[in-house]
Amino acid sequence: MAQKLDEPQDRGDFFKMLGTLVAGFVAEKIEDSVTAVGPKLLRPPGALDELAFLTTCTRCDKCIQACPENSILKASAGTGLSLGTPYILPRSMPCFLCTELPCVKSCPEGALVWPKRKLGEVVVEGPRAVHLGLAVVKEALCLTFPEPDRPAQACRVCVDRCPFPDEAIRLVPAAEGQPPHPVVVEDVCTGCGLCVFGCPTLDPAIIVEPRR
Ligand code: SF4
Ligand code: SF4
Ligand code: SF4
After folding, report:
1. Cβ 182 vs Cβ 158: under 8 Å
2. Domain 50-129, what architecture?
3. What does the pLDDT look like over 83-97, one tens digit per residue?
């Protein structure tokens, strides 16, 4: 009996929850289809999620001018909705994770905000909390993996170039007789691309997948 009395409320809650889920699903689909237009770009530190970033950034170039390393580029024709927005190409110039993040401080629109991030139980902020994307090792290109046309060889440039060596990326033991391989730690990697910049292979064996 008690179950029957509760039923209308349960049904109401159910439809409310369903409505929220559907709205969330539709919003996600809209965001996916809008952000899928054009290339996936690596945004400067503290960038809002892609859809919010695209609608907030006024293409004013202030972050580009504020970067002391000239790491931030301006998206050119052929980048769809991203035209004129700032982005980073780590193979040309990575993000050096400046202590004061001048790009973030220069943004008048709030398209770049002071980064905060949870690392385990601790909330960190500033350069350590930057999350441009995630570094990914391409095993077929990485020198530490053997390929039919060449033996494996020791290399640790990506680890040595990383601002958080042995935290964001570390070498792990490989099979006997093989050199250790680099492994990225997802929760710590900032996506700065310093590893990409330093990787000695012609086609970089490590890339940064942009956060979306
Ligand atoms: S400073 Fe802000 S609004 Fe201006 S281009 Fe950079 S991200 Fe966009
Ligand atoms: S720097 Fe490049 S080649 Fe060397 S271990 Fe790292 S990913 Fe592999
Ligand atoms: S692994 Fe690469 S992208 Fe990630 S923090 Fe280290 S240098 Fe930056």
Report:
1. yes
2. 2-Layer Sandwich (3.30)
3. 999 999 999 999 999
The answer to whether 93 touches 196, Cβ cutoff 8 Å, is no
Domain at 133-210: CATH code: 3.30.70
pLDDT digits (tens, 9 = 90+) for 134-172: 999 999 999 999 999 999 999 999 999 999 999 999 999
Which residues lie below 8 Å from residue 65, measured CB to CB, with a gap of 6+?
106
DSSP per-residue letters across 50-119:
HHHHHHH-----HHHHH-TT--EEE--TTSGGGTT-EEE-TTT------TT-HHHHH-SSSSB---EEEE
Mutate to test the pocket of ligand 3, among 162, 181, 209 (most ligand atoms within 8 A of CB): 162
Output the CA 44–ligand 1 centroid distance in Å: 9
- Ligand 1: centre distance to CA 60 (Å): 5
Q: 3 CA distance to ligand 2 centroid (A)?
A: 62
